[in-house]
């Protein structure tokens, strides 16, 4: 920083604070123990870059904005990189991506270098590593460190199955491969399951866990962590210098046996580049590894040489960062909610924070043991994670920011709604309110019954259900079918039209399939597939009530656990009374015998997303199942086709694109139903 006279100005003080914070965060991050999420770090780094750009007199070559990584730790021997390992500048939105493109094209135009072509790669959320081969043999692996000097982690990297110990034929005399060590999401989940089973704290995320695994002094521990590796760049190479482009380098890496990710694409326009970024922003959770953006590089190595680099990053590459899925915020309080089964779930009341594409004010804490393991306390600064459509959760506290004299949170002993005692059975991770008439249990049970996953009664959201229960109009799910427009009009916020619409939706629900009724009743362990099998086998609710546990367990796909749960549910006098009331209110409790349909979709799995013209969601699903097909709720390798209606889900579309699943519009759906095969125009990629 430039010399300053007297008391530092406000901007000088802020710049100093930012540099100190970022330097400390860099050390923690590259040691595998970050103190803040990446999104928070990016915001601080951007603030510092903007301040330095606006005040050139505060320039300092030692600023974190000019440096790469952090100094190598003393735990491992130092390794000096023959070719520095640089960092990347970031683009946070399309405007910044296009600004970078303008700088690149302008520089190449001035050099009369010809048109630019870009290569797009996924930005893996792992640990950058340089692996050195001599005469085709693996000799050393080092972390990035500060870009010039890293740590020797040879023994640990040697345990990674994806890293070859010997390269293929024709390897150069010296061949340094740069890439990313990562922990597969499946390996991370399995590791955390083992941690929980052993009563140990969960690991925070795959990236930190991969970094920590690579820094184990005992390489046998690293070997147990199932780490992976993707190669994407070259360092020092002796014995070959004829590479012309990035794509040629990738082909050569594959020839020598290095793992190269399959999601690499090249484009001539920045619009296509942004399209690729947008596609992967939607599908970022599809792979079995975490990504936090897309890396865009100039393909031509000659063009790269013309563009050059700054002190920390190449001008010929940039990282398009996805919106952060982890942020820090204050934990205001911990409260407990009661679900339809009586399960008491602790949740965090947060200072609202924008994360994962939406503002989050509450997040789950799962159960009593999880709160104790994470040791989060009211008043803490906490890390909040929201990944896609997953319910937001508190990952853990920022211990360095914990206020003094805080106390561990204690699980309440009585229900916060009905004040009955909460009970936790021996060996059970969950705590329950056993009062079946607890208002929270009643409300949640009715809300589940009316949800899209069950009876799909439009207009009966949780707020309306709470008002119905509080007013005494509804005590159980059957009471919904006894409501009148006049009843609904007594509720706050309802007018004649909205009240009429709710009653119409309830009337339509009387004809829902028997399987939907079974799902709506909330029988433990009974999912959609099992409910469908149960309804098909016994044809009516009376048949199910008369069935023995052995009769039910004998159904394909239904075992003794589900059979016992169904039998116990209907043995309960209150539950049988509710079923009787449903029948009295005209709810169909048997299978509708319709015209015999051809079973031309047998063996096919057809997923429906959005609203298909001419069909309700249930009707489209019934049309598939009625012809012998299956209609699962998600796209997988086994999916035969994805029917795409209005308001289609982005995640299903992204998954279908990734797997090459054929996509059908309304016309294609009709063709499939009529002919039992895909229309000639359909096909996957």
Structure description:
With 685 residues, this protein is α+β, with helices and mostly antiparallel strands. Helix 12 (439-450) packs across helix 13. It is globular, with a radius of gyration of 30 Å.
Per DSSP, the total helix count is 24
Which class of the largest domain in CATH terms? Alpha Beta
Report the helical percentage.
25-40%
Gross morphology: globular
Domain module tally: 5
Query: Terminal Cα separation, in Å?
Result: 55 Å
Average pLDDT confidence is 89
DSSP strand (E) fraction? 15-25%
Largest sheet: 7 strands, antiparallel
**Low-confidence region ranges:** 1-7
What Rg, in angstroms, do the CA atoms define? Answer: 30 Å
CATH homologous superfamily assignment of the largest domain: DNA ligase/mRNA capping enzyme
- Which structural class is indicated by helix and strand composition? alpha+beta
Provide the CATH architecture of the largest domain: 2-Layer Sandwich
User: How many beta-strand segments?
Assistant: 21
List keywords for this structure.
685 residues, alpha+beta, Helix Hairpins, D-amino Acid Aminotransferase, Chain A, domain 1, OB fold (Dihydrolipoamide Acetyltransferase, E2P), 5 domains, seven-stranded antiparallel sheet, five-stranded mixed sheet, 21 strands, 36% helix, disordered N terminus
What's a concise summary of this model?
It is built from 24 helices and 21 strands.
């Amino acid at each position: 920083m430039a010399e300053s006279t007297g008391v530092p100005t406000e901007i000088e003080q802020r710049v100093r604070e930012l540099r100190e914070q970022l330097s400390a965060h860099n050390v923690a991050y590259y040691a595998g123990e970050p103190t803040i999420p990446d999104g928070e770090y990016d915001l601080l780094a951007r603030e510092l870059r903007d301040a330095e750009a606006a005040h050139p007199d505060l320039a300092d070559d030692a600023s974190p904005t000019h440096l790469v990584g952090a100094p190598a730790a003393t735990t491992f021997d130092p390794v000096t990189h023959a070719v520095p390992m640089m960092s990347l500048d970031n683009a946070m939105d399309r405007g910044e991506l296009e600004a970078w493109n303008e700088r690149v094209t302008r520089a190449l135009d001035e050099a009369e270098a010809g048109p630019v072509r870009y290569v797009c790669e996924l930005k893996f959320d792992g640990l950058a590593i340089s692996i050195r081969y001599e005469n085709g043999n693996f000799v050393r692996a080092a972390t990035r460190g500060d870009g010039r000097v890293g740590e020797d982690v040879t023994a640990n990297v040697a345990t990674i199955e994806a890293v070859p110990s010997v390269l293929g034929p024709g390897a150069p005399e010296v061949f340094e491969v740069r890439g990313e060590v990562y922990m597969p999401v499946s390996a991370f989940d399995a590791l955390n399951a083992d941690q929980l089973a052993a009563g140990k704290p969960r690991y925070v995320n795959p990236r930190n866990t991969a970094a920590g695994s690579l820094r184990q002094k005992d390489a046998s521990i690293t070997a147990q962590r199932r780490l992976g590796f993707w190669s994407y760049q070259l360092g020092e190479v002796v014995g070959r210098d004829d590479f012309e482009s990035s794509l040629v380098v990738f082909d050569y890496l594959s020839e020598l046996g290095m793992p190269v990710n399959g999601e690499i694409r090249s484009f001539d326009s920045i619009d296509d580049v942004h399209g690729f970024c947008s596609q992967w922003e939607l599908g970022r959770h599809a792979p079995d590894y975490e990504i936090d953006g897309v890396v865009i590089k100039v393909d031509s190595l000659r063009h790269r040489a013309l563009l050059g680099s700054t002190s920390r990053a190449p001008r010929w590459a940039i990282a398009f960062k996805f919106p952060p899925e982890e942020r820090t915020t204050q934990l205001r309080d911990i409260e407990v909610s009661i679900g339809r089964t009586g399960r008491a779930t602790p949740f965090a009341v947060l200072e609202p924070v924008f994360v994962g594409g939406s503002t989050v004010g509450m997040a789950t804490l799962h159960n009593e043991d999880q709160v104790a393991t994470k040791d989060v306390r009211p008043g803490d600064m906490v890390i909040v994670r929201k990944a896609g459509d997953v319910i937001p959760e508190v990952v853990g506290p920022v211990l360095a920011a914990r206020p003094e004299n805080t106390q561990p949170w204690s699980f309440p002993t009585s229900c916060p709604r009905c004040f009955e005692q909460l009970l936790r059975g021996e060996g059970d991770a969950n705590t329950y309110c056993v009062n079946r008439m607890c208002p929270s249990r009643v409300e949640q049970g009715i809300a589940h019954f009316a949800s899209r996953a069950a009876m799909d009664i439009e207009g009966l959201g949780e707020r309306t259900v709470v008002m119905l229960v509080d007013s005494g109009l509804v005590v159980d799910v059957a009471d919904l079918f006894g409501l009148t427009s006049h009843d609904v009009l007594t509720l706050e916020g309802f007018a004649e039209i909205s009240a009429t619409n709710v009653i119409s939706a309830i009337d339509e629900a009387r004809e829902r399939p028997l399987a939907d009724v079974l799902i709506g009743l909330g029988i433990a362990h009974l999912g959609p597939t099992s409910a469908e099998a149960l309804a098909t086998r016994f044809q009516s609710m009376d048949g199910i009530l008369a069935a023995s546990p052995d009769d039910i367990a004998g159904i394909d796909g239904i075992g003794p656990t589900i059979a016992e749960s169904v039998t116990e549910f209907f043995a309960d006098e209150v539950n049988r009374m509710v079923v009787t009331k449903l029948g009295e209110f005209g709810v169909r409790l048997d299978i509708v015998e319709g015209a015999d349909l051809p079973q031309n979709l047998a063996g096919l799995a057809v997923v429906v997303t959005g609203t298909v013209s001419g069909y309700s969601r249930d009707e489209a699903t019934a049309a598939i199942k009625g012809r012998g097909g299956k209609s699962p709720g998600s796209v997988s390798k086994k999916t035969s086709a994805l029917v795409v209606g209005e308001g289609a889900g982005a995640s299903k579309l992204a998954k279908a694109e990734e797997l090459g699943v054929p996509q059908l519009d309304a016309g294609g759906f009709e063709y499939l139903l009529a002919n039992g095969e895909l229309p000639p125009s359909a096909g996957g990629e």
